[in-house]
Fold this protein.
Amino acid sequence: MTANHPEGVPDARPSAPFVHLHVHSNFSFLDGGSRIDELVSRAAELGQPALALTDHDGLYGAVRFAKACAKHGIRPIFGAEARVESLCGDEPPDDPHHLVLLAETREGYANLCRLLSTAHLADPEGQRPPLITIASLCAHAEGLICLTACRHGEVGYLVDAGRDHGARAALLHLREIFDAAHL
């Protein structure tokens, strides 16, 4: 049964609460412009019960995010959009592929920290962006939820290139790393 507004227009609100799972703050230079407190405040205004913060290659705003979420009664979901080696051995020309990794548990948060730290420490001079290896991802996938990311994700990249077979292979590889409930 759909609730109606006084004007007889059906209510367009979803039956289940909506949660943003891929959000960048101003800690993601050139990709996010909003301050964390503004993001959380807006999510609260919209009645969202939770919000994920997925800045590029790090958990830079995690403490601010946790405090802002506590203030507004929103469940924080900690994550990151990370650069990851190709699942199919096919790197894009300008930037490694991206995956969004969300911590579902404390172990997942610890694994996310390990993955990001290892990627950053692999190039101490900072000559290239941090890159998570597939071997490291396999070793530290427990407690994490994986999203295929944005247009820079390998699956999206391959679909855009008309390489559906490669996109399917990448998805199957992700399914081997993350069980179906976490992909």
